[in-house]
From TrEMBL:
Recorded coiled-coil stretches: none
MF GO annotations: nucleic acid binding
Domain of life: Eukaryota
Lineage: Eukaryota, Metazoa, Ecdysozoa, Arthropoda, Chelicerata
Residues of the Tc1-like transposase DDE domain: 3-50
Name this polypeptide is given: Tc1-like transposase DDE domain-containing protein
Species whose genome carries this gene: Araneus ventricosus (Orbweaver spider)
Transmembrane segments: none
InterPro entries: RNaseH_sf, Tc1-like_DDE_dom
């Protein structure tokens, strides 16, 4: 799976995937609705924003992100994985347009 970005479509990447027998899924370009990492970043960002006191320096932010990443509930990731069937179905229904998710 990729977002059709040019680096993901480089010939060397295509050659490697083909040599490993890995086929690509058809994927709408720039579909944030089908990119679960966006939801993961959101959950991580919300966790950092709930911290008190909030990170004041770049080093504090780095530390907070690393701590919150380790504490991230595996249920969040599990939900993102299981929701992909629904997301894909909805995306096909609206022919790649934004889905209300």
């Amino acid at each position: 799976m990729d977002d059709n970005a040019r680096p993901h479509r480089a010939a060397i990447v295509d050659d490697f995937l083909e040599s490993e027998g890995i086929s690509r899924m058809e994927w709408p370009a720039y579909s944030l609705d089908l990119n679960p990492i966006e939801n993961l970043w959101d959950a991580l960002g919300r966790a950092v924003c709930r911290r008190f006191p909030p990170p004041a320096t770049l080093r504090d932010l780095e530390t907070a992100l690393q701590e919150e990443w380790r504490l991230l509930d595996s249920a969040v990731v599990g939900h993102l994985v299981t929701s992909m069937i629904i997301r894909c179905t909805l995306c096909m229904k609206v022919r790649g347009a934004h889905i209300p998710y």
